[in-house]
Specification:
The complex is a heterodimer of chains A (155) and B (165). Chain A is mainly beta and 155 residues long. Helices cover 12% and strands 45% of the residues of chain A. Chain B has one helix and eleven strands; from the N terminus they run αβββββββββββ. Chains A and B meet through α1, β1, β2, β4 and β13 of A and α1 and β1 of B.
């Protein structure tokens, strides 16, 4: 009985290092989505393939594992005095690249969850574009919003 | 031996269960940013004034007439292109009487002295740039054509200029 208890405890302790062997999932916000100078009444579109202005997240996790990508997207950017400027996202405004190259993305709709597969070395990148829709009387100034990407490793 | 085997199976099950239970989730955020430039503002600064007009005698006011030409003042983001378009009346009205107006002419300039101004045809609109300081001045002229039996009175009409980036 003593021996059995020892085996059980030893095995449970072993279980922790076994879990740790799988590379931990990390998600990093690499680059913000930059609309730059926007004129009142003139919509500004940033493509996910724009290497300077599209948003980018890098993912690191278990090799070749499937992951679920989910965005929390803002409906507006907040500016001076709480002024709002509508933001919109459409199908194809996000892209996933296993090779982490902006030129080799698979497009997807950021408004919906998307299943992707990490590369052989457990990497991937997500790019996002969008549309800023300033009103004709949009108050001048700096506007910001937060875009969050949640990544879940699928079993 | 049988006890150890059962125990091993239980341990493996426990390890597997705990692996499944610990699905990995993580997230990160980026910031979306934009810098909204100065909105366009248009002011009707001076009326297009034909003054006294006599029946049967056409009267024109040139766009270059700084005293009588109509003037719009535009402010907005410096050095930025804008498009001008106009809603032009075909007649002036005084109660139920009308008087034809036509031959609209225009000048736009970066200075309110009209120095360096460019002539344009208002019915066709124009595209130009605001000054580095975000200013633009637009003048309009036209010609009224009173009939020989034009009823006396004060005749007016509205001219609207629309400016967009």
């Amino acid at each position: 009985m003593k021996r059995e208890s020892f085996i059980l405890i030893a095995a449970l302790l072993l279980g922790v290092p076994l879990l740790a062997q799988s590379r931990p999932l990390t998600v990093t916000g690499v680059r913000g989505l930059t609309f730059g100078a926007v004129l009142p009444g003139v919509p500004r579109i940033i493509l996910r393939t724009d290497p300077a202005n599209s948003g980018q997240f890098d993912i690191r996790g278990p090799n070749r594992k499937q992951v679920l990508l989910s965005f929390v997207l803002p409906a507006a950017m907040i500016g001076p005095g709480g002024a709002l400027m509508p933001l919109s996202f459409r199908a194809g405004d996000a892209g996933y690249s296993q090779s982490q190259l902006i030129g080799s993305q698979v497009g997807f709709d950021p408004r919906q969850s998307f299943t992707a597969t990490l590369s052989n070395n457990g990497r991937g990148s997500v790019f996002v574009g969008g549309r800023a829709n300033p009103a004709t009387n949009q108050r001048a100034g700096a506007y910001t919003a937060t875009i969050t990407l949640t990544v879940t490793v699928l079993p | 031996m049988r006890t150890v085997t059962r125990l091993t199976l239980a341990v493996v099950a426990l390890v597997v269960t705990s692996t499944v239970a610990q699905a990995q989730t993580n997230n990160a955020s980026i910031t979306a940013t934009a810098s909204v430039q100065t909105p366009i503002n248009v002011v009707g600064a001076q009326q297009l004034n034909f003054g006294n007009v006599f029946p049967g005698v056409n009267k024109a006011v040139a766009a270059t007439d700084l005293a009588n030409g109509g003037r719009f003042d535009v402010t907005g983001q410096g050095s930025t292109p804008v498009t001008l378009s106009f809603t032009l009346p075909a007649t002036l009205s005084s109660g139920g009487n009308t008087m034809p107006i036509g031959s609209f002419s225009g000048v736009h300039a970066l200075l309110n002295t009209q120095a360096g101004g460019l002539a344009f045809t208002p019915s066709a609109g124009a595209t130009t740039n605001l000054s580095a300081g975000g200013l633009l001045f637009v003048w309009l002229g036209a010609q009224v054509q009173p009939a020989t039996n034009q009823a006396a009175g004060t005749y007016t009409a509205s001219v609207t200029m629309t400016v967009v980036y």
